[in-house]
What does this fold into?
Amino acid sequence: MRTIKMIMLFTLAVLFTPQICSAQEISATMNFENAEANVTTVSNYVNAVQNGDVQTMVAQLADDAKIYGLSGSFAQEMNPAQLAEYYKESFETTKHSIDENTSYAPIKVTGGINEGEWVMVWTTDTISNKKTGQKIMIPAQVTCFLKDGKITMMAHYYDQLNVMTSMGYTLQPPSQE
It folds into this structure.
């Protein structure tokens, strides 16, 4: 009797394994219902940065949005109110010029931990100091996660060392002591 139970259990496990494994399938597509609307939302945000329009920027964000990569360390997270303050200060002293050849890629992921609707942005933001005229070109990639037509997460990736050296900072090796 015990052998029959073990065979039945093994048979059930073999029969249900394909269903369990297929539940974990991950796929991605650039053609989905909200693709164009998501690109428009992210594009509205990017254009608002260029226009110094904090109100329009924040209007593209969900109330509980999380923004990463702008405040020194990637681990530091901003919420929409903190982002608004960050850019208000930035717009007082600098002007942002976004590359006209900015590229947007909408992606919908089904399954896995990254499931949802995304928009990837590749651009160059040229920041000009209003007093000195100094310009810093910042090539960047921004990843946005959208839900219900709003940006719920935004991660900025750019070469921070390039920004710092363009501002006059220098990199020194550690002491040999």
Observations:
- The mean pLDDT is 87.
- Helices lie at 2-22, 35-51, 54-59, 80-93, 160-166.
- The beta strands are 27-29, 61-68, 77-78, 94-98, 103-110, 116-129, 135-147, 150-158.
